[in-house]
Amino acid sequence: MQTKFLFPFKLKKIGWVFICIAALLITFFTVFSENTFLTNVPVFYVYKSNNPFDQVTLEKRMFSTTYDDVRFEVITTLFVLGCLLIGFSKLRTEDEFTMKLRLESLLWAMYINFSIFLFSVLFIYGFDFVMIPFYSLLAFLAIFILRFHYVLYRAKKISAYEK
Amino acid sequence: MYSIEQKKYQLMKNNLKVERAIKNITQEDLAKIIGVSRQAINAIELNKYIPSTVLSLKLAQYFGKTVNDIFTLEEVD
Predict the structure, then answer these.
(1) Which residues are bridge partners to A47 per DSSP?
(2) Are A98 and B39 within 8 A, CB to CB?
(3) Which residues, at least 6 apart from B51, have a Cβ–Cβ distance to it below 8 Å?
(4) Strand pairing report for A41-47 and A62-68
(5) Cβ contact, residue pair A100, B37, below 8 Å
C-alpha cells in the first residue's frame, strides 16, 4: 500500500540508536559534571544575542563564529532526529490502518501537549518559565511516539487472540 | 447521516469473518495476500476500522464478490 511522506523502515533502528546515544550523553554529563568534553567548541552562528547579565556589546551579531558549550545542541539534535525517525518511519507492514493510528496519535499528542502547556502557562511563574515552550516541543514528539506504539501494541495483542 | 430527532445513525458492518471461514483462510494469510497488516484485517472484522474504498474493492475481489455483499450499512439506535 502506498504511503507518502514516511522514511524507509530501516531508518527506524537508526532513530533508536540516536535516542540511546542522547540518553548516554545525558547520563555522562550528569555523572561527570566536571568533565569539559564539548563545553568549549568553536561554532558558527547566524544570530547571537547579548547576554543580558553582562554589559559587553557584541561586535558581530550576525554570521560569525564563537566558542560555546554545545552539549545542549548535540543532545537536542540527536533527540529530535531520533524521535522523527522513530515516529515517521514505515513499519514493517505499513498500511492505511497503521497510518490512521499514526495520525490519530499525532492529534492525541497535540491535545495532551497543549493541555500541559496551558497548565504551565497559567500556573508556573518565574524565570524557569522560559524553558517550558522548549520542553513542550520535545514532549510533543515523546507523547506522540508513546501513544502510537501503545495503540500498535494493543492492536497486535487483540489480533493475536483471533484466528 | 445523523438525525437528532430519530436518534438513529448508520454503521458500516461486514461479514468478512464469515467469508474468511468459507474460504478457510486465516487473518494472517489474508493480510499477506491483500498487502496490509494483520491488525488491519482484525480491526475491520471488529468494526473498529472502516477500510478505504481501494481496500474494500481488493477484499471483494479476493472473495469474488461485490463490495455490497461484504460491507453493509446498518441502522443503529
Answers:
(1) A62
(2) yes
(3) A96, A97, B40, B44, B59
(4) antiparallel
(5) no
Return the pLDDT at B2. 53
The verdict on a CB contact (< 8 Å) between A159 and B39 is yes
Residue in B36, B38, B43 nearest the CB of A1: B36
- The model's pLDDT over B44-68, given as tens digits with 9 standing for 90+, comes to 999 889 999 999 999 999 999 999 9
A54, B32, B49 from B61: Cα distances, Å: 74, 15, 19
Residue pLDDT, tens place only, A19-72: 999 999 999 988 988 877 888 888 888 888 777 776 666 677 788 888 888 888
A130: number of Cβ within 10 Å: 8
Grid cell in block for residue A99: 497510518
- Among candidates A11, A32, A139, A146, which has minimal Cα distance to A81? A11
**Chain A contact set for B43 (CB, 8 A):** 97, 155, 159
Q: Do A93 and B31 touch (CB under 8 A)?
A: yes
Please count the other Cβ atoms lying within 10 Å of the Cβ belonging to residue B1: 4
The secondary structure of A4-19 as a DSSP string is -S-B-TTHHHHHHHHH
Closest by Cα among A48, A46, A42, A51 to A70: A42
pTM here?
A: 0.84
ipTM metric: 0.82
